Automatic annotation (TrEMBL):
Domain of life: Bacteria
Organism: Micromonospora parva
Name of the protein described by the UniProt record: DHA2 family efflux MFS transporter permease subunit
Subcellular location: Cell membrane
Keyword Metal-binding: no
Transmembrane listed as a keyword: yes
């Protein structure tokens, strides 16, 4: 075969690009829906009169649902066919979006977000399976470049789109916008995707699933309930934490028995996978948890509109867009033990700016901090996950990818819950205003009134208060955010410990196709 024919065969032809179009549409919906909701959390607080810890469940429930269906998707795709299952996932996500827009209470919204997450969690892994089958393993790198578009644009476009929709219409439109996209994607999928050829698949670990998913949900529910009741002694806190923790421990002990467990923890015998997974898990708890609070600071302490908050978050996405392709290239040439610590150093430098926030912190400083953090993030996530998978045997890759992706989702959920608990506890320490109570009969604090007045200035006309009280409240609120960022900062610094053990020499990759060409394994990123 000539060099010219090889080059031609490596190109993505029209048929493959047509399939890629369906997958990109699904990825855009799934990824945007994570970032678009981040700027809406303060809006949910005021709309549903709920605490931050409570509305943070709109994010936590979504990511937990994603983690639940990731291991299910591979088994179900073999059993029912990828096209059929992908269209079911699209329909679930679209229906969930419509129901979210119609939610009347925060509880309903959280429940509908679970339905959305069950669909969204299958879109990316199924999409990668469909594209890999359509193009062949030798073109995975080119396919990842196509899928990289929504992955890179999501962190930039999501907050801006969410802010614009909330400012110009209402919060309902951050969900309603998915309806036409989902409908187009369903029609497109019907005509573009190849027909299904379901095959018998390995048995699915339903017992493990019934232990892990409820266990995580119960444990995180207990943690998230702590700020509302203020003590571990309340049954609402300790009972779900105890039951959830017991279920997770039982799952870990049980998972070594089945031939095909839900999560193959035996893979942790691979030192490279273990170190990379621990590094990623600690990093995600800190970075993703605190990342949800960045727009909240702009909205609640600085009184910015949701669109302005989304625009202020853009430097982080731009930074990641610059370094992610560079990091992907370097990952094949330079051991990640030499590059990831440098990228983590950039994140630490950028993060430090947010530990110093007050009600007047310069936007230039915060924008520069976000940009530097974005540069570091782009050089951290993909190389770590590539390192986690590249030393596995070919038959272990699917299980390893599932394990890494679920750890990523769990880390994001834990981070969101922990950071919202810390922030809410800090804000609850603000001085109560004598004689002033909210609709539920709880005393209104100085920080609470100051935050509310930033979103609704008319409140100060309805209840004249001393301007110094608002200043004290905003100062206290800013310090509460700074304290929470200090915790996240410390966790990012701790990430250097497992990162120091990452391989500093080139490792031979185990993933080869029958012709001896290295296969790049796709990794799902939400």
């Amino acid at each position: 075969m000539t060099q010219q024919s090889i080059a031609t065969s490596d190109k993505l032809d029209g048929a493959v690009l047509k399939v890629a179009g369906v997958v990109v549409l699904g990825a855009i919906m799934s990824i945007l829906d994570v970032t678009v909701v981040s700027v809406a959390l303060p809006t949910f607080q005021s709309e549903f009169d709920a605490s931050y810890a409570r509305v943070a469940w709109t994010m936590t429930a979504y990511t937990l649902a994603l983690a639940t269906v990731i291991p299910l998707s591979g088994w179900a795709a073999d059993r029912f066919g990828t096209k059929r299952l992908y269209m079911v996932a699209l329909a679930l996500f679209t229906i969930g979006s419509g129901l979210c827009a119609m939610a009347d209470t925060i509880g309903e919204l959280i429940g509908y977000r679970v339905l959305q997450g069950l669909g969204g969690g299958m879109l990316m892994p199924l999409g990668m399976t469909i594209m890999t089958r359509a193009a062949g393993p030798h073109r995975i790198g080119r396919l990842m470049a196509v899928l990289g578009i929504p992955m890179l644009l999501g962190p930039i476009g999501g907050p801006i789109l969410g802010g614009w929709l909330i400012d110009t219409a209402s919060w309902h439109w951050i969900f309603l916008i998915n309806l036409p996209i989902g409908l187009i994607a369903l029609i497109y999928a019907q005509f573009a995707l190849p027909k299904d050829a379901p095959e018998p698949s390995e048995s699915f670990d339903f017992v493990g699933m019934l232990m892990l998913s409820p266990g995580l949900a119960l444990f995180l529910y207990g943690v998230s309930s702590l700020p509302e009741v203020g003590t571990f002694a309340e049954a609402k806190v300790w009972a779900p934490m105890l039951v959830g923790g017991a279920l997770v421990v039982a799952f870990v002990l049980y998972s070594f028995r089945p031939r095909h467990p839900l999560l193959d923890l035996r893979l942790f015998r691979n030192r490279s996978l273990t170190i990379a997974s621990v590094t990623m898990f600690v990093f995600i708890i800190a970075f993703m948890g605190a990342g949800l609070l960045f727009p909240s600071y702009f909205l609640q302490v600085r009184g910015e509109s949701t669109l302005a908050a989304g625009l202020l978050m853009a430097p982080q996405g731009i930074g990641a867009m610059i370094t992610m392709p560079i990091a992907g290239t370097l990952a094949d040439r330079v051991p990640i033990g030499r590059t990831v610590p440098f990228a983590l150093g950039l994140i630490v430098i950028g993060f430090f700016g947010f530990t110093q926030v007050d009600p007047q912190t310069s936007y230039w400083l915060l924008g520069a901090s976000l940009f530097v953090m974005g540069l570091g993030m782009g050089g951290t996530m993909m190389p770590i996950m590539t390192s986690a998978l590249r030393t596995l045997q070919a038959q272990e890759v699917a299980r390893g990818s599932t394990l890494v992706n679920i750890l990523q989702q769990i880390g994001g959920s834990v981070g969101a819950a922990v950071m919202s608990v810390i922030l809410t506890n800090e804000l609850n320490g603000s001085r109560p205003i004598p004689g002033l109570v909210d609709e539920s009969g709880k005393p209104v604090t100085e920080a609470g009134l100051a935050i509310a007045s930033q979103q609704r200035p008319e409140l100060l006309q309805q209840m004249p208060v001393d301007p110094s009280l608002i200043e004290r409240g905003l100062d206290f609120a800013a310090k509460s955010f700074a304290t929470t960022f200090w915790v996240a900062f410390a966790l990012v610094v701790l990430t250097f410990i497992p990162a120091a053990l990452l391989p500093r020499r080139r490792q031979p990759a185990q993933l080869d196709d029958p012709q001896g060409e290295q296969i790049k394994t796709p990794v799902v990123i939400h």
